[in-house]
Amino acid sequence: MERLCRQLDAQLQNKVIDRLPVLHLTTQYRMHPKICLFPSNYVYNRALKTDMFLKSLQRLNVTLTRAKYSLFILGHLKTLMC
Questions:
Q1: Which GO terms describe its molecular function (predicted)?
Q2: Which has the minimum average pLDDT: 11-15, 57-61, 66-70?
Q3: Which of 19, 43, 57, 74 has a Cα at 20 to 30 A from 66?
């Protein structure tokens, strides 16, 4: 990582690139929406949002991180999206 940062800094100084190629995550699909609030507020300047489908699953109290629910989610995806 340090080598990458030095290389990008050198490219900026030599005007090979005009800005750093920084991408920011805007939608997350893994965290509970309440847990997502911390990185959204303090790292992403309130720009990180939770996917709407994940929010609907959270309202059903389905925990995506537990393997025993993954078959239920895949098997009933059409039902959950209604």
A1: transcription termination site sequence-specific DNA binding
A2: 66-70
A3: 43
